[in-house]
Design goal:
This protein has 264 residues and is α+β, with helices and mostly antiparallel strands. The chain has two domains: 1-50, no CATH class; 65-180 and 219-256, 2-Layer Sandwich (Alpha-Beta Plaits), CATH 3.30.70. Helix content is 34%, strand content 36%. A hairpin with a 4-residue loop joins strand 3 and strand 4. Helix 2 packs antiparallel against helix 3. The longest helix has 32 residues, at 2-33. It is elongated, with a radius of gyration of 40 Å. The N and C termini lie far apart (81 Å).
Length: 264
Amino acid sequence: MSTWMTRGSGRTRSGVLVLLGVVVLAALGLVVSGCQSNGAPAEGSTVSTSQPIDTITVTGTGKATVMPDEAVVSVAVENDADTAGAALDANSKQMQKVLDGLKAVGIKQDQIETSNVVVYPNRRYDQQTGQETLVGYRASNSVTVTMTDMTQVPVVYKAATEAGANNISGPSWQLSDDNQAVNQALAKAFENALSKAQALATAAGVKVGDVMVMNEGSSSTPPIIYGTREMAGAKAADSVTPPPMNPTNIDVTATVTATYRLQR
């Protein structure tokens, strides 16, 4: 019995060796069949190659100059009193008169937005003793008025001051969200980027191809602000001459970074 098992094991090892030899020869045959005699890929075979793509990346700038189509004015009322409650009560009543005065000259509710309401203690500092003394409380209520009709700007100053506003600042000239100046600046920035790419390509003896990547860098519309301020506690004026207003141009700048394919 033991002699038969030894012979069987020998036959099994021989069969395994023969099978491994067949697999190795088959693998070698596949490698040879995938290439032509000159070492080039045979027809139907796949060879992966990685070659860098010739590109150029440039940044262009553009500017559009337009007149503002929005003006924002900040209108505030400040009141002092011995207690916080008294200061807030007086402030609320006076601000309501200001809001009524603005609406009376054609300012709509959706043009007015409350921006800040605050009540805080007023303290006086004594330099000799280094002590602070509570002298009362101040309440302040601020609203912003946004206008698309520039003729309303001086009217708002007049109406708000006559109604009791004692802290007015602005206007801030700006562009609305749907203003086309930003798009104009971006278009000029792209033209500038393309011009740079073509100049560099010509110098290198190549041509500019398709855009591969393009990114908007930035755009800016710096606000122009003029301001005036009345002292807190000033009484409502009987008649106020509207201040002259002269909207000025706004420069909108933009940058575009673009990557182009180069053609030889």
